[in-house]
UniProtKB/TrEMBL annotation:
EC main group: oxidoreductase
InterPro entries with a match to the protein in the record: Extradiol_RC_dioxygenase, Glyas_Bleomycin-R_OHBP_Dase, Glyas_Fos-R_dOase_dom, VOC_core
Cross-referenced PANTHER family: RING-CLEAVING DIOXYGENASE MHQE-RELATED (PTHR36110:SF2)
Keywords, sorted A to Z: Dioxygenase, Oxidoreductase
Residues annotated as domain VOC: 6-130, 151-268
Protein name per its UniProtKB record: Putative ring-cleaving dioxygenase MhqO
Presence of keyword Disulfide bond: no
Organism of provenance: Jeotgalibaca dankookensis
Gene Ontology MF terms in the entry: dioxygenase activity
Entry's EC annotation: 1.13.11.-
Length: 311
């Protein structure tokens, strides 16, 4: 049985792209590691933020749709995206959120303290201290490695059928149930980042896709061979899995698990330095070869964005 190392990336829908960049780079201090377009809609950006090396397990990606309707967070979605920060960094982040007038609250889950807040477009986020995971060696503004976000701590999943969602995570993705508390069941994979998800045990009313909601959560496959094995297993077990899609920086397959959450399985490679160097990732607009002939037209459609320090 194949076992995923954990979360590869999480993709969400937001509003204005400059506000998106200001929040995730300017406030949270993440690195813009790829500026490209939605391969299915090249008139829209696809922006990737992560750690210094754009490692799977640190990547959050966005489709900025200016003027789009706000969604409703609910069943069939990732309800909360959790980030891991170094032990001792929580007070720093409280002060930083206050500095930018971002409201937050503290909650406890499985013996850990989380800071919960929203980005500028209503996406729900949380920060939690974790020993695991290497430091993010990216410094931006006042966010330095000793306090910087390492990558994903995990996610909270809202399902229309929690038992089915948990069954998929255990029997298909290879996660293990490690704890149960109040309304949550915690499942864990084997890597040290992006390795835990908490599933709400009760059915959650259906959400509605739109600005401020997660579009899908992607799980890691170590290589193309393992990726194809998962595709075959999903097909055999009755999941409506897609063909393999070349996303330039990874291969992807998609399916809806039976709790109605859109899952992706993405290969770890070839990675984000295939068309840029480590030093220059995220600086230029990168297009797949099929769209290069339309570069001038595409660039005219996209709103200019700038990564800028807000401190």
């Amino acid at each position: 049985m194949n076992k995923t190392a954990g979360i590869h990336h999480i993709s969400a829908i937001v509003g204005h792209p400059q506000q998106n960049v200001d929040f995730y780079a300017g406030v949270l201090g993440l690195r813009l590691v790829k500026k490209t377009v939605n391969f299915d809609d090249p008139s829209t950006y696809h922006l990737y933020f992560g750690n210094d090396g754009a490692k799977p397990g640190t990547l959050i990606t966005f489709f900025p749709w200016v003027g789009a309707t706000h969604g409703k967070i609910g069943g069939g979605q990732v309800g909360m995206t959790a980030y891991a920060i170094p032990v001792g960094a929580l007070p720093y982040w409280e002060k930083r959120l206050e500095k930018f007038s971002i409201k937050y609250e503290k909650v406890n889950r499985f013996g850990e303290t989380y800071l919960q807040f929203e980005d500028y477009h209503g996406l729900k986020l949380e920060l939690v201290e974790r020993e695991e995971g290497q430091l993010n060696n990216w410094t931006f503004g006042e966010v330095e490695p000793e306090v910087a976000i390492k990558g994903f701590a995990g996610a909270v999943l809202y399902s229309l059928d929690p038992d089915s969602t948990i069954k998929t995570l255990v029997e298909i993705m290879g996660l293990e149930k490690v704890a149960e508390e109040d309304e949550f069941i915690r499942l864990e994979s084997y890597d040290d980042i992006g390795n835990r998800v908490d599933v709400v045990q009760t059915k959650v009313a259906p959400g509605r896709m739109g600005v401020g909601t997660v579009h899908h959560i992607a799980w890691r496959a170590k290589d193309k061979a393992e990726h194809l094995e998962w595709q075959d297993e999903l097909y055999t077990k009755g999941y409506g899995v897609t063909e393999v899609k070349d996303r330039n920086y990874f291969d992807a397959i998609y399916f809806k698990e039976f709790g109605d959450i859109l899952f992706e399985i993405a290969t770890d490679g070839p990675g984000f330095t295939r068309d840029e160097t480590y030093e220059t990732v995220g600086e230029e607009l990168k297009l797949p070869e099929t769209y290069e002939y339309s570069r001038d037209q595409i660039e005219k459609l996209l709103i200019p964005i700038e990564v800028k320090q807000l401190d």
